[in-house]
Design goal:
Belongs to the L/F-transferase family. It is found in: Cytoplasm. This is Leucyl/phenylalanyl-tRNA--protein transferase. One of its GO terms (cellular component) is cytoplasm. It is a single chain. A hairpin with a 2-residue loop joins strand 5 and strand 6. Helix 1 crosses helix 4. Strands 4-5-6-7-8-3-9 form a seven-stranded mixed β-sheet, with helices on both faces. Strands 1-2 form a two-stranded antiparallel ribbon. The protein is α+β, with helices and mostly antiparallel strands and about 210 residues long. The C terminus is likely disordered. The chain has a single domain, classed as Aminopeptidase (3-Layer(aba) Sandwich), CATH 3.40.630. The chain is built from seven helices and nine strands, in the order H-E-E-E-H-E-H-H-E-E-E-H-E-H-E-H.
């Protein structure tokens, strides 16, 4: 498969699959077993990150430069030979963003994008896709605010696809695919909105501190 549409993405996510591109541009769909998720309620920021958050070292914006975040995530990485985020991937997710389903959480320093993440929001599920940083801690702070957004708006499932060292630092766990599909089905039935400042202020029991 070499073309990808926003409808393809929506169909894939609600059925538990997601796309990744090979170096030649060919796109394949994946549904790992086990599946990695990050429990929303149990996340806590590392102690070393708390001063960075409290000092507001980075300005956080949502959906201000979605495509810029995708290009940041598609950039070269020290420990990786290539990227699974092809131009077709960027095009399709940008269209999905225009439809209101894909979102980015962005960290800025002196009005410059220095880190962030993006993913897909359907019902009460956020499907985390990728993150990047050009300044230390920027993507970690963006993730912290992602969790705050998901908690404040009542999301039930944060999918992170594969387990790796990066998601492990945020508390990721693996669950059987059958368990994931059951959780996915229930969470998709919820009506949730991805808002940085929802009308209702979250109670103190949801604080990450």
């Amino acid at each position: 498969m070499t073309t990808l549409t926003a409808d393809d993405l929506l169909y894939g996510y609600i059925n538990g699959i997601f796309p990744m591109a090979e170096p030649d541009g060919t796109i394949y769909w994946y549904s790992p077993d086990p599946r990695a998720i990050i429990p929303i309620d149990s996340y806590k920021p590392h102690k070393s990150l708390r001063p960075v958050i409290n000092k507001r070292t980075f300005e956080i914006r949502v959906d201000f430069d979605f495509e810029g975040v995708m290009h940041g995530c598609a950039g070269p990485r020290v420990q990786e030979d290539g990227t699974w985020i092809s131009s077709d991937i960027i095009f399709a997710y940008t269209n999905l963003h225009k439809l209101g389903y894909a979102h980015s959480v962005e960290a800025y320093r002196e009005n410059k994008l220095v880190g962030g993440l993006y993913g897909v929001s359907i019902g009460g599920v956020f499907f985390g896709e990728s993150m990047f940083y050009s300044e230390a801690n920027s993507s970690k702070v963006a993730f912290h605010y992602l969790i705050e957004i998901l908690r404040a708006n009542g999301y039930q499932l944060l999918d992170t696809q594969f387990i790796n060292d990066n998601v492990l630092r945020y508390g990721a766990i693996e669950i059987p695919r059958t368990d994931y599909m059951e959780r996915l089905k229930k969470a998709l039935q919820l009506n949730r909105k991805f808002l940085l400042n929802p009308p209702q202020i979250p109670s103190s029991k949801h604080s990450a501190f």
